[in-house]
Amino acid sequence: MVSWRSVVMSLLDRIKVCNNGTEHSAYLPFQVGDARVGWIHREFSSAIKPFKNVFLVESDAIRLSDQLHDYKSRSAAVDTVLRALDDDDWFSGWRNEAYPVGTGFYKKPLLEMERTAVPRFGVSGYGVHINGFVRKGDDLHMWIARRADDKPTYPGMLDNFVAGGQPVGLGLIENVIKESAEEAAVPIEISRTAKPVGAISYQHEEDNCLKPDTMFVFDMELPSDFVPSNTDGELSEFRLLPAREVMAITADTADFKFNCAAVNIDFFIRHGILGPEDPDYIEIQRGLHR
User: Fold this and answer.
1) Tens digit of pLDDT for each residue in 121-153?
2) Where do the domains of the chain lie, and which CATH numbers do they carry?
3) Is-above-0.90 flag for pTM?
4) Contacts of 98 (CB under 8 A, 6+ apart)
């Protein structure tokens, strides 16, 4: 039996993993005009330096060429470079999915970029994460997923019920419906009931990449007789577990993908499973919104 104190301390460790990207000295700002849109590791800067007609690598920043005046020309020029870098194995699995690049989710993007390249450029990424849960009397049960062993990122790790990146040209609710159908075969009449419950942000560093990401979180209460099934090959299984058991797995293991653990913790707090009587409660809360 895991004590309350050891669970909270372990959950706090999960939050700290999400927010391990605090040191910027190894990175150069990625600029489009006067706007900083990302962070590029100095090691990676050597790979893009030859593409002088697109990127200007300077001592204090990496700038997109001023000759690229608009969204379309910037996106096309960057895409040509990214495809060349992909041939040199700088990225982990081309997705053919464009992400917006700009200064904020609600700001007009300056260009778009292939999803798999976003971490290398330290560009803010956005996604939707859905908690699928079932009420059994007074207890909550959560559907959790396991990522397929052949996924290019975090293969075999545990995941939230449904999660996906936020691509160009799709609204948040539209994306919730799309991802729910693809990942868990959720009928549209159920996925439309998903409720937005907040956003989680963090800055994670891994493999010389900074990820200043934001996850829009949704709760989806599911019928007790609904059983999800994956349709796009990205997940290998689903399990329905008591929420307190999910909390123990989150606390005691590193089985969940790092940002999915944060989504779990947010769920535990909002549903009163993790409460304010612990002195680390505020720090955990604060760590969910960096």
Assistant:
1) 999 999 999 999 999 999 999 999 999 999 989
2) 4-21+125-287 (3.90.79.10), 27-121 (3.30.750.160)
3) yes
4) 75, 112, 113, 114, 115, 167, 168, 169
